[in-house]
Amino acid sequence: MFSFYIPTAALNEQKKTLELLGENIANLNTPGYKTRRITFVETLGTVAGVSQLMFKQGAVTYTGNVTDLAIKGDSFFIVKKGEEKFYTRAGAFSVDSSGKLVNVDGYVVQGWMEDIRGGSEAEATSTITDIIIDPDLIMPAKATENVWLAGNLNAGLESTREVWATGSAFTKKATLVSSGITFPLNVTAGVNDQFKVTFNPQFGETITEELTLTAGTYNDIDSLVTEINNQINASDLKGKVEAVNAGGSLKFRAIDGYSGTTLTLSSGTNDVLSDLGFVDGVSSTSGDLADESTELNDLLQVTTSLVTGDSFNIVGKNRGGESVSGAFTYTDGATLGDLVDTINNIYSGYSTAKLENGKVVLEDDEVGDSSTTISLSASDGNTGLMSVPSFVNTESGYTARVSTSMVVYDSLGESHNLTINFTKTENTGEWNWEIVASSGETIVKGGSGKVLFDSNGSLISFIYDGGVDALTLSLSNGAEDLVIRLHADEQEGITAGITQFNAVSTLHTKHQDGKESGTLNDFKIRSDGAIIGYFTNGEEAKLAQIALAEFANPSGLKRVGGSNFISTGESGVPNIGKAESLGSTIESGSLELSTVDLADQFTKMIEAQRAYQAAARVISTLEQIADETTRLKR
To answer: The whole model's pTM is what?
Structure first.
């Protein structure tokens, strides 16, 4: 009896080979597809085909789609449908309407989700779960806790005081004051009734007049002054020299108003000069700088003597910008020092006036920026006439200040713009600092302090006033109080701190650790499988970690369609971990191509076809032999 079993079995197995080759060729362009082959083995005198998965790395092609993933290495993606897990190399993933990362069959990619609120990174030993990329994900706000400062404070900066001074100096007329007169003074004609006055002007001819007093008894200075002026006015000295009561003393004064005019007294024929308290030849020249004791009417600037009740208006602003005003009222014998005292009373607590080289100088009591102004003017209706020099700003108040702004965030994510000012003090290497807040913040404590540098420009200390170690702000929007530590020293990896060198100031805020809230704007997938989200607040955070699996024998995996596999006893249990721990890398925006070699498949197809034809010929030959044998028996 002829056996058809063996060639029939061979025929069936070759048919299976052709079917498998057709499947391979059909999946030529299927991402992640692994070629299968049939290996023939002898079994109890017949032949059987065993299907094998040929696991090897496929070529990687770039797609540009961020959710297209290709594995380089021996690992598999893990996807889940319901409670069943599958393994695949086909990384053509997408994000579905619920935010899940899925494959083309809708199976959800597995991994570990991260807590973007700042929790610890998910461990690969924990249970894997669905990876979800929620487009509505919000990065929570984080209140600023630290601000790091950097840059240089110019050591060459110096603060100055605001200074105003009269544009010209006050100068004195030529004056001669008696050393003393004994009253009553008896003047006898032909005995002691004459003295000479010489007026030598800067411009014009010299005038010398011998004045003769009316004989008689003079009981006081006023009667004597009246008599002398009567004699002067009756001579060529009228309008050029006058006698005045200077607080009980006799004073002669040149009144032409020009610097350089000389006034001289000398003995007359019947000399009375010594009785008047002068020595022969005593002289004075106009134009000397006035001092605080100089009477106002002795000033060259006074062209008509002031009288009691004449006044001068003093108007301006103090260094803080507040308006100030007052008046100086003349009384008999008032001096330039009296005018200076009045100015000091008006600017008390802000600026100090003094007389320097004949000029009235108003100087701020403190260095720094200033709004100080001053003007002096004669009141309308004054009897006397005085040419009042204008005040000019000779030195502007300047604060040696270096400033920078900083944006910080509260617990609600609202930003607050603060300014920190560093002001140079008069002490070497010392600066004061102060925080300036806006209307929405109230500084509770820690808003000012000092910073000290050594002789090499290096930071010694950054100190808060009040013995605190942080700035505390109370906010009007309902957020928690902000407690911020300012760092001016070197922080490795963050800032080099602040210095003080004689170079341009470059102070700036290097870094702050707060942030506003933000929504997910984009994401990328790194080579280690970490999914990094980018938020509208400029922050980034790890959203999830893709899990991979590896098998001791990946060829033992069972194909269940759709480029998906399940584990078997031959493949072994999966070892699940991160890409880097499994010796694999993930390329985002790429796909692994099918490992099908078309030329090789065609070659194997021809071989299978020949084997199939040969098996069919064997069966046909056996049929002919059987028919012939049957005929012989007949």
So the answer is: 0.59
